[in-house]
């Protein structure tokens, strides 16, 4: 078991169950089922708060002053028509791409047919394959292989292997809304790297001493800034998209282990899964501080919005469940429990929004949940440690990365 070196021994052992598979001082990971974090954590505190770049104070409009070059913002919210496919992806097969993050036996991505629930093929994708990410223009797919130090390409039109690219320790990949830069999270070396979006040559590197283990992110509605979660230091960073510099820090407390970051459909809040606080944290778009906290089941991890943009589905890894959060009521309204208490990790929705596909990371399965009833309607054995799977195609005009976050 790797050493974390950031926390006391007890916290270090818990870190091994987190989303990242690389710590500040190690290359591997293991998982410990059934962990329930009961030790109180420090209350969230903000340091060096910053007003949002591009914010229009009096108007209170999170869509104002959009990033130059980004596509026009839809009138009906961040995600616009969240059910229509772009012509660029209409012919792509309905597949699920499942990376294996088992460092000792991984190095593959399993391709599953969404309709038949059958494995179509298994592609080589490099040791410690972490997440599967669509390019900004939706025409390419990349698997972030950390130990292999490569992005392995997949052609979404065929589901076959394509060109790969060299880049140091890729963990997660994003794209600025204007498509001008890739943003690669090097969790191992505490680096956030702006790259050429086509060649992935590094253009600028951000390394903030407060951010240990940068892993997940999302952009503001106007694209002017993005928020990054720092898993091993419990920090959130706000980064100006234009100047490519840190403009704010927000600490959730050592040991909080923040994971997924997602912008709400109305653009007015970010939601962050604070895994070891057992909290869903809400952050206003124009005030970099914690506005509200919602208690969750053990170890909240991934956040996904329903196609009608009324609900958020939050995976609770330690509880083996998906919790349904009503955005208007601001409360959890349903729980989908897996009888086996599988450690649910990352996933995505089918195009019609009827199925939520989630990886059971410790158990080697991919599960499909009916989003109306919460029932498990599919269970597909892939082996290894399935991590940040991509459900493809997705509605939207362009991708900002991660496991299929489109707008």
Strand content: 35-45%
Radius of gyration: 19 Å
**Could you estimate the helical fraction of the residues in percent?**
under 10%
Structural class: mainly beta
Q: What is the average per-residue confidence, as pLDDT, rounded to a whole number?
A: 88
CATH superfamily: YVTN repeat-like/Quinoprotein amine dehydrogenase
Q: Quick one: biggest sheet? A: 5 strands, antiparallel
Biased composition (Low complexity): 20-60
Region (Disordered): 18-84
Signal peptide: 1-18
Organism: Nocardioides baekrokdamisoli
Record the SSE blueprint.
Blueprint: H1 9-15, E1 45-47, E2 95-99, E3 108-113, E4 119-124, E5 129-134, E6 141-145, E7 150-155, E8 160-166, E9 172-175, E10 182-186, E11 191-195, E12 202-206, E13 214-219, E14 225-230, E15 235-240, E16 245-251, E17 258-263, E18 269-274, E19 279-284, E20 292-295, E21 300-305, E22 311-316, E23 321-326, E24 331-337, E25 344-349, E26 355-360, E27 365-370, E28 376-381, E29 390-392, E30 399-401, E31 405-406
Antiparallel strand pairs: 1-16, 2-3, 2-29, 3-4, 5-6, 6-7, 7-8, 9-10, 10-11, 11-12, 13-14, 14-15, 15-16, 17-18, 18-19, 19-20, 21-22, 22-23, 23-24, 25-26, 26-27, 27-28, 30-31
Domain YNCE-like beta-propeller: 106-390
Biased composition (Low complexity): 20-60
Region (Disordered): 18-84
